[in-house]
Design brief:
Order of helices and strands: EHEE
Radius of gyration: 12 Å
Helix content: 10-25%
Strand content: 25-35%
Structural class: alpha+beta
Mean pLDDT: 81
CATH topology: Defensin A-like
Number of domains: 1
Number of helices: 1
Strand order of the largest sheet: 1-3-2
Number of strands: 3
CATH architecture: 2-Layer Sandwich
Low-confidence stretches: none
Shape: elongated
Distance between the termini: 27 Å
Oligomer: single chain
């Protein structure tokens, strides 16, 4: 991604990828960001493209 304000996330989950997309979308919108595209496929693949000019974005994962 060449834009300095856009962030792309790709991942694979073993359970409920649509739930993660909903949660991340709410978190991004909650701090003033915007979601440009998002998808979750039943095979576990998640893709999101979002942006923010509200400051740093911290995303943590746990397994």
């Amino acid at each position: 991604m060449s834009s300095p304000w856009a962030i792309e996330i790709e991942g694979i989950l073993s359970e409920e990828p649509a739930r993660l997309v909903r949660a991340l979308t709410g978190a991004i919108l909650g701090y003033g960001g915007w979601v440009l595209s998002r998808s979750a496929i039943d095979t576990g693949t998640v893709n999101m493209l979002f942006g923010s000019n509200a400051g740093p974005v911290w995303i943590f994962t746990a397994s």
